[in-house]
Amino acid sequence: MNIAYWIVAGLLALFYLYAGGAKLLRSREQLQPMMAWVDRTPMPVVRFLGTLEVLGAIGLILPPLTGIAAWLSLAAAGGLGVLQIGAITVHLRRADRQIALNIALFLAAIGAGWLSTTWW
């Protein structure tokens, strides 16, 4: 179970560090080719979502690695799952049916949450 957790959580953390970091550091024009939804979203909201993604990635890795408040990995996985439910909703409201990645990320977050219960 530990190896499975580290694989799932590590991949999720890498994805969210990249995606969240991009939302934090890039301009609207740089983000639009990857994320069409940013054209109608205020940049403070985009930056806030990027912050949540980076914090979620840190929450997946740091607590089990240090052994301090390991239950935070479950909270981080749950938060990232909720984030993907919101992302799916945004895509569907925009008539954008490309939600396969969001569904995969949601399922991976649920899997990481379930696997994280082995830490505490």
Work out the count of structural domains.
1
Tally of DSSP helical segments:
5
Written as H for each helix and E for each strand, in order along the chain, the element string is HHHHH
Low-confidence stretches: none
Count every beta strand, where a strand is a DSSP E run of 2 or more residues: 0
State which percent range the strand residues make up: under 5%
**Using only CA atoms, what is the Rg?**
15 Å
Major sheet description: none
The CA-CA distance between the termini, in Å, is: 13 Å
The percent of residues in helical segments reads: over 70%
Furnish the topology, listing elements before pairings.
Layout: H1 2-25, H2 28-31, H3 43-66, H4 72-93, H5 100-116
Helix pairs in contact: 1-3, 1-5, 3-4, 4-5
What key phrases describe this protein's structure?
120 residues; mainly alpha; 76% helix; globular
